[in-house]
Every structure is written in C-alpha cells, then in structure tokens.
Amino acid sequence: MKTLEDLNKLYQSLKIILTKIDFNSALESVERLKDEIEVSVNSKLEEGGYEPVVIYKHLAREYSSGEKFVLNLIATLLIKKPLVVFLDEAEHSLHPTVQLEFLNFLKLLKITFNLDTQFFISSHSPYIIQSAVNSEIKTISLEESGNKKISVETLNWNGAEPKVSFSKLNYKIFDIPSNEYHSELFERIREISGSKSIDGTNNYLKDHFKLKMVDNTKETLPVYVRNYIHHPDERSRSLDVEKLRNSICLLEKILV
C-alpha cells in the first residue's frame, strides 16, 4: 500500500469537492473495521513565522453517501485488488463536479497503485459520459419491434471535438433531441455555407441538398426549425418532437 503522501497527492490532483477527507487515514480505519473515523487535516500557516497545526475531525456517520461510496470503492480496490469491477449507475450521490472527474480518478488509482482492475461502468450521467469522450463508448439498447434483440453501437467521436456538448451527448446516447443541439448543428451549416444571412443558408440547403420547403413556406426544414427556436411567438409555425428530430437527422447527414 502506498504512503499517506502518495494518497494525498493523488487526491489533490483530482481537485474533487470532497475536500475534508484524508483517504489514507480513512482507509486504515476501514481496514480496522472501526465505526468512527477521525480524519486529521494539517494546515500550515505562515503568518508571523508560526506553523501551527489545525486539526479537523470528521466522523464516519457525518459522511455524505457520495463520500461513503468513494471511500468504500478505494478500500475495496486496495484491499481486495479485484480484476473486474462492475459499477452500475456510478453517478449515484456524486456531485456533478465529482462525476466529471470520476473516470480520471479511477485511472489515477490504477496508475498510482499499479492495479490490473478492469472497470465496466453503466451510467446515465452526461457528466461521466463527457469525460469518456476520448475513449470508446458503447450504447446498448433493446429493440422491441418484432423479435426482441439487443443492439450495440460504438460511438467514435470526431477528434476535432475536444469537448462534446451535453446536448449532443443527450441526443447520441439517450435519444433526446433538443433545441440546443439543433442550434449547434445549424451554426456549423451556416459556417460551411459561408452565408451571413438565414436566407442565404436556406438557399444553400435548397440548392446543394435539394431540401424541400415546409408547410407551404419558403423555408427548408432546418431553417423552419431554427426560426421557430429563435422566434417562438410567431404563430405561423408549429414545432413538435418529430420535426425537431427529422431536422437534426438531416443536418447530421449533411455534416458527415
């Protein structure tokens, strides 16, 4: 087992919100199976040339459920050294900021303690999924039309996207179309078209991709949806989920 200094360096590098836990003290207490854990946080003060030690005591019963989950996970990994760990809904009770750092936390644990553990993580958290964008992500779904079958899709993100938006994640992973994702795609189309006006973008879509006009208007579906999003008070337009989804599909095909 690594030293207290190694654990503290690991913990500090994560910058996780759980700022008042000394992991090694907690682990030693867990190993001794004590119900009460006292954590000491040493803080050196430089004022006046003094270096007094400030002691902070934290009892196990005062931990949040998220803190208990993290401590239990660390103890399990370092004591049992499992080869395979399945984490179902890993985001449970974890603050969103912690969720964003959770995968990096597991990677650093493996490196710091030379663990051979393989993690299988299921999650509905866009924060955890966003932190895994540069890795391989698989979506598993059950198709219930006709004969039921399980389909697995591997999502390979474009390397030009260092940070995938939550709206894109929610659509690609959870099949939730949104105005935000449509706007994101539409702006990329405007940049490609080189047009500074909506009418110019509309003509670009019509001329280059033969898109039809919508509901007796002079607008292609993406422009129609864009105008509804930006001008929802105009009663001449209506927007449902199906139109939004179809427009997103069109824009994605154009941008491929």
UniProtKB/TrEMBL annotation:
GO molecular function: ATP binding; ATP hydrolysis activity
Domain ATPase AAA-type core: 41-129
Highest taxon, organism lineage: Bacteria
Keywords, sorted A to Z: ATP-binding, Nucleotide-binding
Position of the signal peptide: none
InterPro entries: ATPase_AAA_core, Bact_Antivir_Def_Nuclease, P-loop_NTPase
Protein name: ATP-binding protein
Organism: Candidatus Thiodubiliella endoseptemdiera
Classification lineage: Bacteria, Pseudomonadati, Pseudomonadota, Gammaproteobacteria, Candidatus Pseudothioglobaceae
